[in-house]
Amino acid sequence: MKKALKFPKKFFWGTSTASHQVEGGNYNNWSEWEKLKSVDFAHSSHRKFGYLSNWKNIKKEAENPKNYISGKAVDHFNRYPEDFDIMKSLGLNAYRFSIEWSRIEPEKGRFNKEALAHYVLFINELKVRGIEPFVTLWHWSHPVWLEKEGGILARNFSKYFVRYARYVVEALQNDVNYWLTINEPEIFTYEAYMAGSWPPGKRNVLSTLRARLALMMGHNKVYNAIKRINSGLKVSFAKHEAAFEVGDNSILTKISVSFGKYIASKWFFIITKGHLDFIGVNHYARTKMKAFSIANDNEVVGDLGWELYPKSIYMSLMELKRFKKPIIITENGVADAEDKYRSWFIKETLRWLHKAIEEGVDVKGYLHWSLLDNFEWDKGFWPKFGLVKVNRKNQKRTIRKSAYLYGKVAKANKLEVDE
Length: 419
Ligand code: BGC
Prior knowledge:
It contains 14 helices and 15 strands. It has helices at 19-22, 29-49, 55-62, 76-90, 101-104, 113-128, 144-148, 157-172, 185-193, 205-229, 251-271, 311-320, 342-358, 401-412, and strands spanning 2-6, 12-16, 94-98, 132-138, 178-183, 234-240, 243-246, 279-282, 286-290, 293-294, 327-331, 363-369, 388-391, 396-399, 414-418. Beta-D-glucopyranose is lined by residues 18, 21, 183-184, 187, 240, 282, 331, 369, 376, 385.
């Protein structure tokens, strides 16, 4: 027997991208980093990913330094009307993307009107198709002049961030209701200041904590600035939420899970208290702990070796219920070049998400990562997260089967499941 799980009226069904991963032609902190690191990344790829069971399929791309140069990316900067047509044909009504700070303010204090005009047009093209824009102001890329002054740790970081945000929000406030100040501060600060794999490539606990604080202070200040411009706008940041789970009953495990939840989640909500109108949640996985080690069961994994465990979205949402705030899933997806698991993953994830809604969590939308295959930061182009496959030789778009499945759910605003 089939049963239909209905979603709330006006539910946002969409996709999510970030400027540097799709636009092409950017010059920012990442493009400098790519020049510096592409050969290293190619040489060390076997050490990092050789253990994956699909290594033979990805080896060629992963061992090629060109894989790590974003270059023209998937030319979304020019091809966005075609990409929005695809979204519309699938029945999607929401799109999260980021504004590229380095285009808007290529030199310190010099704001580029043409770049702003590009995003005005871009948003207009969304709106004529009935697609609601969700705008991220900082998704890990920023101008080179800022990086030279210390990036997130620059003395005047929050001043610069507020100035750039005000320029953008003042111009777009009538067309954009939903704003995300920053993307995943925890992941960025870990990779950039602790693991050394992202720019500026530091390995220092103190810098990691300082960068985390700087970003969160930046969020709070930009939140206030946006509210001063227009108090009706809805502002949040995109929080990476993994679902922590205890893998056994030991005291050590309980301690490590409580610590993990505090450092990776609670702390961010304490510091942003009074500065969130809704909660943007990027959710990919669970973190099952046994003492201080991750012990996921990994029965099904995507191309990156990440466990696919759809129930974890429910676990995260139930944790966030206590805030009594609207929630938008701002990212969720899987690297799956063959599109082997994506349909199943989307269906099962939505089934669990629906259960959370039934149990009182106010989820307003689900934005799948990602619309297009894109540039996966230090992994380059080989992981394929797109609902739409992109051939980077000719930029041809091919809609994957899973995208049709997702579109069917979106159009009907309900999910058919077996009882
Ligand atoms: C990031 C995206 C990234 C995705 C998949 C998220 O943490 O926000 O930029 O592409 O994960 O790795």
